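I am still learning, so can you show me any protein sequence you like together with the matching structure tokens, please?
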Amino acid sequence: MKIMEEERTTFSRLKLLPPLFRKQDAEKAAPHTNMFLSRAHRKGLIHRIARGQYINSFLYGFPSTEEVACFLKPPAYISCEWALNFHGISLQSPTVCTVITLNGSVGKKRSVQYQGTTIEFSKISSSLFFGFEYRDRFYIALSEKAVLDTIYYRGIIPAMDEFEIENLDFKRLLKMVEKYPSRVHKTLQKLLTTLLPSEFIKDIPFP
């Protein structure tokens, strides 16, 4: 009877929590938070993503990689290779989901493994924290912003032979690049002149 009562209590508290939650959220639902989390985790009712961050998996299943990635270090959005593939600009399937955040706790040592994908975090200045949209409970860079972020962090665009550059909005791209350092301008111009036919280049107002 006691075990059944404990299970009912655990389930009732899980119903008070969202699909993704933090220990602070659990503290509002369960007075003995550590015991509650430990019991729920041991029974496979919740999944621990990182320290103090959980998935309410028994009730809601497992969220998408993008949703988990943005949840971990808000405010944040998905960018670089992952966003380029998401939008169909790059045909290369990435194994790393890059999260751009204002949170200072970043770097490879802070990366998280989730369902076979590595989620990595990169800090960006507030002046460059723009150019993303809300999709299915997560934020992701627009195609053009993902191009610029990739150049900004990588210095190049990987696998350019699998790059569908014609699908970009060039006016938006050139407007966005104005906020970036000059090295990004130069790399972008080189990229466009390399990948685009000459008849398109003459109509692009490079900065």
Q: What stands out?
A: The chain has a mean pLDDT of 90. Strands lie at 20-22, 47-50, 53-55, 76-79, 96-101, 112-114, 117-123, 132-135, 138-141. The domain at 2-60 is CATH 1.10.10 (Arc Repressor Mutant, subunit A).
